[in-house]
């Protein structure tokens, strides 16, 4: 089984949480702010993942077996490793919107 196939159920769950949070943000008039928060979070996590995964792989701390990746890479890092920060940011931002207070001011 590939890392990409193993990640699909988690991506679907994160998308569901993000969608529910987006609906709540839209009802509270915060859709644009929520989208910007997700974009900033996602961009930061993706950038950090690219840098630090490449450093850790170059240092020999770990390696991905060729049989479990698609083969596309950014430097030394397999491209599917970017799914983790994207899914994490979806889950984080969606959960944040769902956890906001009930008066609409946010947490």
Using only C-alpha atoms, the radius of gyration works out to: 16 Å
Main sheet: which strands, in order across? 1-2
Structural class of the helix and strand makeup? mainly alpha
Question: pLDDT under 50 segments (min length 5)?
Answer: none
Distance between the termini: 40 Å
Number of domains: 1
Percent helix: 55-70%
Main pleated-sheet profile = 2 strands, antiparallel
**Total helical elements:** 3
What does this structure look like?
This protein is mainly alpha-helical and 107 residues long. It has one domain (18-98). Helix content is 64%, strand content 4%. It is built from 3 helices and 2 strands; from the N terminus they run H-H-E-E-H. A two-stranded antiparallel sheet has the order 1-2. Strand 1 and strand 2 form a beta hairpin. Helix 1 (3-27) runs parallel beside helix 3 (83-98). The mean pLDDT is 90.
